[in-house]
Sequence to fold (775 residues):
Amino acid sequence: MSMTFLWTDLMVWFLVAVLIIWGWVISRSPQVKKIWHTIFKSKIAMASSIVLLFYLSFTLLDSVHVRFSPESEQGTQGVQYQGEMVSLLDLMFVHNIESTERTYSAPFATHEYAKSIVVDDKGVTRQVNLPLKHVSQSDSFLKESLFALLIGACISFLLIRAHMFWRKKKGEKVKEGLESPLPWRTAYLTLAVLVTAFTWLYLLSFSYHVLGTDKVGGDVLYQSLKSIRTGVLIGILTTLIMLPVAIILGVSAGLFGGWVDDVIQYLYTTLSSIPGVLLIAAGVLSMQMLMDNNPQWFETTLERSDIRLVFLIIILGITSWTGLCRLLRAETLKISQVEFVTAAKAFGVGKWTIIRRHIIPNLMHIILISIVLDFSGLVLAEAVLSYVGVGIDPTMFSWGNMINQARLEMAREPMVWWSLFSAFIFMFILVLAANLFSDRVQKVLDPRNKT
Amino acid sequence: MFAYILKRILYAVPILIGVNLITFMLFFMVNSPDDMARAQLGAKQVTPQMIEAWKVDKGYDKPLFLNEKAEGLQQITDTLFVQESLKLFSFDFGYSDANRNIGAEIKTRMGPSLAIALPTFMIALITNISLALLMVLFRGSVLDTSMMIVAVMIMSISGLFYIIAGQVLFSKMWHWVPISGYLSGWEGVKFIILPVLIGVFAGIGSGVRWYRSIFLEQINQDYVRTARAKGLSELKVLFGHVLRNGMLPILTGVVVVIPTLFMGSLIMESFFGIPGLGSYTIDAINAQDFGIVKAMVFLGSVLYIVGLILTDISYTLFDPRVKL
Fold:
């Protein structure tokens, strides 16, 4: 067994490292700390950030890949995964991956959705719903649910206690008996609901297909959870990739003016005049040809779909930097006319120092707002792009692919609704949390709202 | 005014050249004319002669950017890029991989696209502005807050959900409208109703929030306070002052969209089987037909630039301070 990294894994962990460093840097500045404090004072912001963290933790779980070497692993699992890469999330759901059914089954169903023809002992052919392999028919749903909920409640209780203990320890150093201004109770409540709900789903997934199975018998809960990584990755990494481009071009256009400004303006006007989906489609089509012509770049299908995801993220980044760049250019123009910048210039302060000390800090609110604002749009866009056929690799799990596959089954009677439903619900919770959080960030950071 | 428009049109030329360059590079960077010929001819035994013949037939036998064999200015003009761009600029889109005239196809497909996009746009505009005005009138009240919450919910749900749910409810379960298809003329209304309503509903969330923020920005201005101070009723303030002054930022966002309505909606059209430009584009993407994609990219950029010029012109009509 050895650790391996996909390209997107490296990007995710790089992102985490950046976030930690950034958090450490801003924690030293009292003003910035105060702003974040104001953001989290809102109960909605607190709750939605907990939801976002919950989704992020699944992304991280799914971003640690291990490879079982063919020789050393001789167990039942080792045979299954010879030379294949699996993530920690896969290991958690081995019971669901190994027990695929033959076809559709409804959530918590004990029998298959479709009838199949069997011949019984007396030679009579009948149409029956065959029992599912994974589900043991003797289990009591109610008893197991109660047990799972109890465990979930215990885990969340322990987590909350641990955090309260940590707060007390930290609080003793600051001031005695001072209530925290942050709405921790909301945070605890959200956490408890999420942890309990997940524990319930997880523990029951050992004896049921909690959210049903899809056309080829794959577990829908497992697919929905795997899709989290894809959605979050597209949402965050795209912005991260376009950020440096937008900042460098926007600031230099606003600051240097002249021909630099003209060229950069021309660049973003040209790019933004192309309809977004078409530009993405053209990019993805070219990328597909490029990948078809170079099959030596990847060994496994997982690596192939991973590289395709990286390309998609880059293409999305290329198509989405123009809006932010325009905003940053305008704001830089405005700032460079303000007294403190002209004063700095008069004192002979270098251009780089001015950018670093005066321009960038005053652009931070625009950058942050656009990160959180773009996130939800990108998560939703992934579904549409996958539907159009220029999204994620069809072999990769994503909500868009789930919707796309399940869409055709709506005509069946009774309806096969669970695949669609799960994808939409998982997506809805993430996007809603992101929207609510971005509303709050915008409200606090946007100087126009200060009045 | 005319000098200004002429200037803007001239400024559009380098942008369109840039657009062409981008699509051209995306295509030819990874895909040589030889590859295309092989993919198109399809047969297993493709001789070099057949490839050459195909390239000459399609005009792909010229070099990409620089023709070293030619002399003088011809070195640049007698190339694939310039020839292809010139064709696009004269709106000659050539033939698709399936050997159909793209220009003719676009003309016949514009109608169905507009039949969906125009009503959606108009109804959405009216609904969103009226709802936003209602929210601003009762700002800070329970109505305002609950409408805001509903708006966030609506915009957090994927558009695909509305389409699928709408089709299942209205077509499959209640049989109110046919599930998909298209007819021109008044008989086609039954096909149009559902996509239009879904399009309007899916956009309500973000639309209402946007208009509301525009109106709220106006309501804090000094002139509104003056208007109230001289005793105008809140409704008169809202319609006479806030709405009129809010028109300017609204125009920026709205006018630019109008020409691109011709392009249709990708998702709507393909779900409801409407033979418009949106479904045309999707089919082209799925069939990897680059000729159509290229034509649509060019058309989209032209329409967008037209939209930008229209925005500027509409400014002069609505705001006497702006002079071109």
Summary: The mean pLDDT of chain B is 84. DSSP finds 15 helices and no strands in chain B. Chain B touches chain A at residues 14-15, 18-19, 22-23, 26-27, 29-31, 35, 152-153, 155-161, 164, 167-168, 172, 217, 220, 260, 263, 266-267, 281-282, 285-286, 288, 290, 293-294, 296-297, 300-301, 304-305 (CB under 8 Å). The radius of gyration of chain B is 25 Å.
